Amino acid sequence: MEARTGRRCWAQALGGRVAGSPNLAAAGGRRLVLVGSYDACLGALDERDGTPVWAIEAEDYTHGTPAVAGEVAVAGSCDGRVYVVALSNGAVVARVEAGSHVPNSPAADTNLSVVRTYEGEMVAIEPRGGAIVWRTTLPGSAPIFSSAALTADRLVVGTRCGWLSALRRQDGAVAWEFRARDAIDASPVAAGGVVWVGSDDGRLYAVSLSDGRLLWEHEVGAAIPGSPAVAGDWLVVADADGVVHGFRRRP
């Protein structure tokens, strides 16, 4: 869709439900739209007209949003694997055994990609070749739908038992934990030394990235199942009742 007007530019039918958001990447002189679907496919479409460019097949649903890590896409599947795929031609670089199905979206940059399994294990992968760097089971392990926020030295993730955990990027050791009053299915966002995350307890939390200290919280009145969006001085989040809340940083 055209961002300025909302006009539909094109539509492309896929083979199954699309539960995760698409992602954008550049390869071979063109822009690609990466999308996973419930027909077990991860595919790339041409951004200009939606023409299929390539597709790979997993053995179960691709539920989350594919991540981009340099020249590869990284996607978790409910078949218990993480797929590393060359953006240029869709060749599978690696199939990594995660140990349990991966219903969320990888967090990735050119040096590290981290997925969270449904059983509560964090798996860090070197995205160029798919080698596992470390694995960590979170304390008080519970099913995880939240995707991690990846920073220069931390990754932060929520769990269904209400913990927000920050792990050290280099080895997966726990740096700090913060407890909400209910499940955290929403993915946290980290920027400017602050982590923002919503919970099923109906609160939006702002937590210090360095030590997990609560900076402030705001009760919106309904569960927050999705991630906040941060842009400039604004933070926007939607609740389960369909109400959109906007917060502006004080000067």
Can you describe this structure?
This protein is mainly β and 251 residues long. It folds into two domains: 137 residues, YVTN repeat-like/Quinoprotein amine dehydrogenase (Methylamine Dehydrogenase, Chain H), CATH 2.130.10.10; 107 residues, Lipocalin. 0% of the residues lie in helices and 46% in strands. The protein has no helices and 23 strands. Strands 1-2-3-4 form a four-stranded antiparallel sheet, with no helix packed on it. A hairpin with a 2-residue loop joins β17 and β18.
> In which order are the strands of the major sheet placed?
1-2-3-4
What is the ordering of alpha helices and beta strands? EEEEEEEEEEEEEEEEEEEEEEE
Largest sheet: 4 strands, antiparallel
Strand content: over 45%
CATH class of the largest domain: Mainly Beta
Unreliable residue runs: none
Bulk shape: globular
CATH fold annotation of the largest domain: Methylamine Dehydrogenase, Chain H
In whole angstroms, how far apart are the ends? 34 Å
CATH superfamily of the largest domain: YVTN repeat-like/Quinoprotein amine dehydrogenase
Can you tell me the number of structural domains? 2
Query: What CATH architecture label of the largest domain applies?
Result: 7 Propeller
Q: What share of residues is helical?
A: under 10%
Counting DSSP E segments of at least 2 residues, the number of strands comes to 23
